[in-house]
Amino acid sequence: MSHTAPEPDAELRPYEPIHPGGDLGRLLRKLAAPAGVVLALALKFKAAALVLLKLKIFATSGTMLVSMAAYAWLWGWKFAVGFVLLILVHELGHVAELRRQGIPASAPLFIPFMGAVVGMKQMPHDAWREARVALAGPIVGSVGALGVWVAGEALDSELLVATAFTGFFLNLFNLLPIVPLDGGRAVAALHPAFWGAGLAGLVLLAVLYPNPILIAILLLGGFELWNRIRHWRDPRVRAYYAIPTWQRAVVGATYLGLAVLLALGMSATHIEKTF
Asked: pLDDT tens digits for 47-60?
């Protein structure tokens, strides 16, 4: 998605294409086999999502059930239900902020092993507003994961605590500073140079944990980064990122604070298994 001037009459475009979740090494490796099928479609994912959103072939509830069935194949239905609901909470954070800004937004559309997408008919007015939309998902999603953690402790349920861990990881992963993830959209309000750092970090992650999902994100992220750099000299694009210093400070503080809290949440909910 290029950051040219907002187009009021633009077609629905996907906001959130990717949400892999779980323990960084273990869960990504578990997803490797089914994600191999997804990789072949990754570069065409956004176009397919646009068609589905425009034609309204799949309702949110229907695609949620399909995703639950897919995740249940790996981890069992109880965990799958909790995981998909946490993704839904995250996406509803984006939807709420988009609609609060007066931007028409669709209900989430779920794609197994790739997360969910939310369609919007136009870009936010500037990078400050886009950062708020981007951060709304992880903020609301983190609150949801916190609620699951509290319930898990109250009920002495390892399943709920493990689900909370996955929710914290899901939202922290999305803070990686690379487009099209939430972190890439947020740090754009600080300086686009962060995109390069995010891309380098993702390359390192893909080397340490080779996985089709990470490779798909890397390809999409590289394409998005090149597309934005290509349009950087456009005066409308430069104006889009020209926001006051105080707005950059608020985005930076929120981004870093949220990342720290999510890391602490993961540490607190991590369950050591002994065999």
From this structure: 555 555 454 544 67
